[in-house]
Amino acid sequence: MKLKNPPVNSLSLEMLTELVINLEKLENDKAVRGLVLTSEYPGIFSAGLDLMEMCGRNPAHYAEYWKALQEFWLKLYQSSLVVVAAINGASPAGGCLMSLICDYRILADNPKYTIGLNETLLGIVAPFWFKDTMVNTIGHRASERALQLGLLFPPAEALQVGLVDQVVPEDKLQSTALSVMAQWLAIPDHARQLTKTMMRKPTVDHLVKQRDADIQNFVSFVSRDSIQKSLQMYLQKLRQKKS
Ligand SMILES: CCCCCC/C=C/CC(=O)SCCNC(=O)CCNC(=O)[C@H](O)C(C)(C)COP(=O)(O)OP(=O)(O)OC[C@H]1O[C@@H](n2cnc3c(N)ncnc32)[C@H](O)[C@@H]1OP(=O)(O)O
Question: Which helix (H) or strand (E) holds 90?
Answer without folding.
Answer: strand 89-92
